[in-house]
């Protein structure tokens, strides 16, 4: 009996975690460059059931009865790196990254991911698809969390004011048509090794080199000034999945309640001496 109770409890926990993941996706539906999380549910390893008596052994020649599933769990959450829709903002410091031709990872059969390269005050490198940029008090181009946007030379880009023009290759020109720098677009060949850190930033934990997409024959991309990439969250599908997760949670809850009532009756009524 306790096996079924544990299985129902595991089902409730996995659906609760899925609901939390989907709720976070919905909460970030208007966050530029946000990549939705996807969860995968897996079953725990099956258990082999063996008979304790001898009748089964005499009949079949073995004490193996069969296998028993022991519940499910959420194995992992992985970002969905598909391109989001492009939205016009009209802001000179907003830049949308549109990737076209990218290399395919031979080991994972995944497409590479193009990202903006940023750096914080400690020198840590992080990556993002959020092109909602700004200019800090020093005239340096930053993202919404204050990280410096790096150029192809690996240094922060100083633009001084918003009177700038950014072409499709990421070159930044002043109002006087002076070249101020070029935004670096990095190529992550194994995007599965990108780890979310919040605020639209990713940490790269892979072993492959992160190279630039600028003047890279294997990569084709385009930057659009005055636009941002929207999140790739599908509101309709996500709401449907949330309702399904809720109903599955409630079904497991009813199973758990039924086991609880059965155990309560067993303890209070079975074996009672009249």
TrEMBL record:
Residues 5-35 form the Flagellar basal body rod protein N-terminal domain. It holds the Pfam family Flg_bb_rod. It is found in: Bacterial flagellum basal body. Residues 116-172 form the Flagellar hook protein FlgE/F/G-like D1 domain. Its main location: other. GO terms for biological process: bacterial-type flagellum-dependent swarming motility. Belongs to the flagella basal body rod proteins family. This is Flagellar biosynthesis protein FlgC. It comes from Salipaludibacillus neizhouensis. The lineage of its organism: Bacteria, Bacillati, Bacillota, Bacilli, Bacillales.
